[in-house]
Design brief:
mainly alpha, globular, two-stranded antiparallel sheet, about 350 residues, 3-stranded antiparallel sheet, about 5% strand
């Protein structure tokens, strides 16, 4: 599906609130929860949602500033040569997520069991899942086992279990003496205190929270830095804007709405590198499109190709060029808003958008 109007109708309909069958290959790693669209996703999401509020953003600004300053110090020591910025950024976003949504203290976040190993292997976990999605022969259990993929899966699931168990244990111990603020409470704390999730479900959702937050944030930030490096004029605009709006002060939530040039680069990065290039949904109740011209029966599997929607020349002039000016107010007003959906739409969209 590529038509923006159809995409909005489908993703916001209560007739299509089930993810497609390909998501089942995520279950060994994250369980049948929020990301994989299992039967508990709606309740788990409801518990987590209050952590994504304005007061939380303001409360966590100190942590974001501290980690950004640490990242700046690391990058300032680099030699003047080409290097991959992703893993430096990933270390920063990992610590930010550990100390905010996961609720860990700075000392605890530096000492989580297997944190570095999990952080450096998450891409391999994704590759294992993606390979099984697109290579039908790996969906045959015997071939999956003979290929060595099953052994890899078992290694990673054991590693993730140890990592998330340590995070949850640290928060359970801390909660014996802490009384978290309801509005700024971390998501792991919400899951623990709700008493609605089993221990295994909490661990699954803890890894879901971890990987969807630190990995996605690192990819976006790395993309922004890469585009700024290739667009010196925009780099100068963004740099001057930051000096004018923020100067040498710590970044505050109020500053964010004033960083217009940075916002344009950020959105162009998301257009070019959407967090999820493809999403899949299953029709649970018959639905019609185009004023009844097309009817989708129950059980139909839909693929929303966000990657292609963001490159459709009907909506984007020179779609393969990086042009942050696409997101000026004037250009935005000319375009169907549903042609830009980097975080999906509807009740199953990205929580951290």
């Amino acid at each position: 599906v590529k038509n923006p109007a159809d995409i909005r109708l489908l993703l916001t309909s209560n007739k299509i609130n089930k993810k497609g069958p390909q998501y089942s290959y995520m279950i060994p790693f994250i369980g049948p929860g929020i990301l994989s669209g299992g039967p508990t996703w709606r309740n788990h999401r409801k518990i987590a949602t209050p952590s994504y509020n304005k007061k939380s953003v303001q409360h966590f600004m100190r942590i974001f500033n501290d980690e950004a300053a640490d990242l700046a110090r690391v990058l300032s020591k680099k030699e003047l040569e080409t290097f991959d910025v992703f893993y430096d950024v990933l270390h920063s976003t990992t610590q930010s997520v550990c100390q905010t949504l996961m609720g860990l203290s700075k000392s605890d976040s530096r000492n989580v069991a297997h944190l570095e190993e999990v952080m450096m292997n998450t891409q391999k976990v994704y590759k294992l899942i993606f390979d099984k999605m697109i290579r039908w022969w790996l969906q045959i259990p015997l071939i999956y086992w003979l290929s060595g993929a099953k052994k890899q899966e078992q290694y990673f699931t054991t590693l993730l279990d140890k990592f998330t168990a340590d995070v949850v244990d640290k928060r359970r111990i801390a909660l014996k003496t802490e009384t978290p603020d309801e509005e700024t409470m971390g998501i792991v704390d919400r899951y623990i205190l709700s008493e609605e999730l089993s221990e295994q479900e909490i661990k699954w959702e803890t890894f879901t929270l971890f990987t969807t937050s630190q990995e996605a944030s690192a990819k976006i930030a790395s993309g922004v830095l890469m585009f700024l490096a290739h667009l010196p004029d925009w780099q100068e605009k963004v740099y001057k804007e930051i000096l004018d709006v923020i100067g040498d002060e710590p970044v505050q939530e109020v500053h964010l709405k004033q960083l217009h040039y940075l916002d344009m680069v950020y959105k162009e990065t998301l257009r070019y590198f959407p967090i999820a290039g493809l999403i899949q949904r299953t029709v649970e109740e018959e639905i019609t499109l185009n004023n009844g011209k097309f009817t989708l029966p129950v059980g139909t599997s839909l693929v929303i190709d966000i990657h292609e929607v963001h490159r459709d020349p009907k909506h984007w002039e020179e779609p393969f060029k990086v042009k942050p000016e696409r997101f000026s107010p004037e250009e935005i007003s000319k375009r169907d808003p549903n042609a830009f959906i980097p975080f999906s739409l509807g009740p199953m969209d990205c929580l951290g958008r």
